Amino acid sequence: MAGLLPLLAFGFILASDVKFMLPGATQALTVLDNDCFLPVVAGFIVFGVVAGLAAAVSKAPARWMGWVLAALGIICVVPPIAFFAFLAMFVWSLVAGIWLAVQKPAQVPAREPDVTLTAA
C-alpha cells in the first residue's frame, strides 16, 4: 500500500503548484504520475499473498477469508482484471475489519500456576 504514496504525491504537486511550474517539469511529473504503477501493483500482490496465506494457515475462525485474499493477490498479477482485484481488496479489508470489530473477544483458557519447587 506504500506504493500509493508516490502517486498521491505526484498528483498533489501537479494540482497545487501548477501556476509556478515550467512546462517541462509539469510534463515530467505527469509522465511519472501516469507510469508509476508498478510499486502499487507489487504492494497489492505482496499484501494479498502474504497476508492471505498467513490468515489461511493460522487457527483463525475464518480461514476462508485468508484464501480469498491470497487469490485476490494472485489475480493482481493479471493486468486486465487487476483493477477489479484492487477494488475487491479494499472491500475485503472493510468486511474483515467490520467482522473483527463485532466478534466477541476470544476466551483464553486459564493456565495452571507453575509450582515447581527449587532446592535452595
Layout: helices, strands, pairs:
Layout: H1 4-16, H2 23-35, H3 38-57, H4 63-75, H5 79-102
Task: Explain what you see.
The protein has 2 domains: 1-36, no CATH class; 37-86. Helices cover 69% and strands 0% of the residues. The termini are far apart. It has 5 helices and no strands.
**What is the assembly state of the chains in this entry?**
single chain
First-residue to last-residue Cα separation: 56 Å
Any idea what the radius of gyration is?
A: 23 Å
User: Ranges with pLDDT <50 over ≥5 residues?
Assistant: none
The figure for the number of domains is 2
Helical amount among residues, as a percent range?
A: 55-70%
Index terms:
5 helices, mainly alpha, elongated, single chain, 120 residues, 0% strand
What is the structure about, briefly put?
By secondary structure, this protein is an all-alpha fold. It is 69% helix and 0% strand.
